[in-house]
């Protein structure tokens, strides 16, 4: 009897690459912190700190709870997609994978999604490319939910936000492309013909695109949109509560629109976690809406702390547990 071949995983980055990525992230974080600090100094540290001091522990707990609701709703969506793909994993396992991936939210190359696929490969025996559609569909569902929520909030916001309409259309369009297997496979083929390189990579991408057909199921897509919309609306509502507590009540739907727009804009920059782009867009949109810098700056810093960085803390807590469990023998995992 031949020995079972071990499940392959992505090779570890070379030391030089790890150092380069670490230096890049450190520089990016320092640049964002320096920019916010410089604006706060120009506005007046006293006013900025006074606004932060006005925030009660109960409010901060509420902001974290609303972020937690977002992660739970999207984790449930991940579970729905995993079951639809055919992964025989329980809810606890899928939540562990989803939340643990947050630890790498601000690392280059979407490593959080890659490590989720590695955990799945170890625990189920599936190759990485077979589980890849799960990450792709999760990203598409986020785009769809955020695009629809942005369009709704722009429509309901007092005075309108015409500048956000193109972003809403682009997000919804990208989601439609990714959730239509034939369209996506055709786009991959066109890209290969244009570049004429890396045929194996494009072949894998085309196979992954075709496998998305499993998700073209009305009830599944409807539930995914509902869970994603609930999650992102919870964080938008948290931003509204924060602004109101600081004395800048611009209305629920304008706050939601600004939050979603800034989050999408940060993602479009390509920076890990939207660092820099999301903060700049949020401060600029608040300023354009008449919110003073003494409020816009601390509000941006606090909401990013209670959303992005809170997710990273959760991820860092879950990551070692998920890594340790994924290394158990597969029969032990199946009987657990």
From TrEMBL:
TM stretches of this protein: 21-43, 55-73, 143-176, 223-243, 255-275, 295-322
Main location: membrane
InterPro entries: L-PG_synthase/AglD
Keyword annotations from UniProtKB, A to Z: Cell membrane, Membrane, Transmembrane, Transmembrane helix
Protein name as catalogued: UPF0104 family protein
GO CC terms: plasma membrane
Compartments, as annotated in UniProt: Cell membrane
Topology within the bilayer: Multi-pass membrane protein
């Amino acid at each position: 009897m031949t020995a079972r071949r071990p499940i392959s995983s992505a090779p570890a980055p070379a030391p030089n690459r790890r150092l380069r990525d670490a230096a890049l992230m450190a520089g990016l974080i320092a640049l964002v912190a320096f920019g916010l600090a410089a604006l706060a100094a120009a506005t007046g540290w006293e006013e900025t700190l006074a606004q932060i001091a006005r925030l009660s522990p109960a409010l901060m707990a509420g902001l974290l709870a609303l972020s937690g609701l977002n992660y739970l709703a999207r984790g449930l969506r991940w579970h729905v997609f995993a079951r639809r793909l055919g992964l025989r994993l329980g809810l606890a396992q899928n939540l562990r994978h989803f939340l643990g991936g947050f630890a790498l939210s601000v690392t280059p190359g979407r490593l959080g999604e890659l490590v989720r696929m590695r955990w799945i490969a170890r625990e189920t025996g599936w190759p990485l490319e077979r589980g890849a559609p799960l990450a792709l569909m999760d990203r598409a569902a986020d785009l769809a939910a955020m695009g629809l929520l942005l369009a709704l909030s722009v429509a309901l916001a007092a005075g309108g936000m015409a500048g956000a309409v193109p972003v809403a259309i682009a997000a919804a369009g990208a989601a439609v492309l990714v959730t239509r297997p034939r369209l996506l496979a055709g786009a991959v083929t066109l890209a290969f013909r244009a570049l004429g390189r890396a045929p194996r990579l494009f072949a894998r991408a085309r196979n992954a695109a075709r496998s998305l057909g499993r998700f073209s199921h009305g009830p599944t897509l409807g539930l995914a949109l509902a869970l994603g919309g609930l999650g992102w609306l919870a964080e938008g509502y948290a931003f509204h509560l924060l602004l109101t507590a600081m004395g800048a009540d611009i209305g629920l739907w304008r706050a939601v629109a600004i939050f979603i727009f800034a989050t999408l804009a940060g993602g479009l920059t390509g920076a890990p976690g939207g660092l820099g782009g999301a903060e700049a867009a949020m401060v600029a949109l608040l300023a354009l809406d008449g919110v003073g810098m003494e409020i816009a700056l601390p509000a941006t810093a606090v909401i990013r702390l209670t959303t992005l960085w809170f997710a990273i803390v959760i991820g860092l807590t879950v990551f070692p547990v998920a890594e340790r469990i994924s290394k158990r023998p597969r029969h032990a995992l199946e009987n657990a």
